[in-house]
Write a structure and sequence with these properties.
alpha+beta; two-stranded antiparallel ribbon; 3 helices; elongated
Length: about 190
């Protein structure tokens, strides 16, 4: 076997091992970060939400934090796909949203570029992935972690491609601030 072919096989084997090493949500052990992989339309490859989470200091018991998180997501009218009260985890890796979240235009939270009509986030059909949890996974919570990823597409153009949207950090901040307010704490 040639050195080039052996090198190719080594790369394939390494990629395969890396893919197996990523655990799905809910499969984490005690003390580990929950791992969520989102596959959004128009974005090549999986997005590892746990690697992009913004941390916010939080104090309180896990049950209170989890209850506050559920309240916040109901207020925002953001559908939750999976819940884990033990790790205070809420996520949805494929939420469809349009125009507004709660009472706020999506362009406040997401940058999907601009078009003739203004900020694309306010007009596009958005696929949003989010994961929210507390760390450490056991013991007293010290950080609320919030991760957001999105892509969008113009609903008027049936042939238009999806484009990646970037978070402005404002939705993560709003979630954290509202959780802290519900817990009776300030930042």
């Amino acid at each position: 076997m040639s050195a080039r072919r052996m090198s190719s096989w080594a790369i394939v084997a390494a990629l395969g091992a890396a893919a197996v090493a990523v655990a799905p949500v809910g499969a984490q052990g005690v003390g580990q970060t929950p791992q969520a992989r989102a596959v959004l339309p128009g974005i090549e490859g999986a997005i590892l939400l746990d690697t992009m989470a913004l941390p916010f200091k939080v104090r309180g018991n896990r049950d209170s934090i989890f209850t506050a998180l559920e309240t916040v997501f109901k207020e925002l009218k953001l559908p939750v796909e999976s819940r884990n009260a033990k790790s205070a985890l809420l996520n949805n890796l494929n939420a469809d949203v349009s125009r507004r979240l709660g009472d706020v235009a999506l362009s406040r939270y997401l940058d999907c570029g601009r078009g003739f009509s203004g900020n694309n986030a306010d007009f596009y059909r958005i696929t949003l992935a989010f994961s929210v949890w507390v760390e450490p996974a056991s013991g007293e919570p010290q950080q609320l972690k919030v991760a957001i990823a999105a892509s969008g597409r113009d609903p008027a153009g049936s042939r238009s491609a999806y484009s990646q949207c970037t978070s402005r950090g404002a939705l993560e901040q709003r979630i954290a601030d509202r959780v802290l307010a519900l817990l009776g704490a300030s930042r």
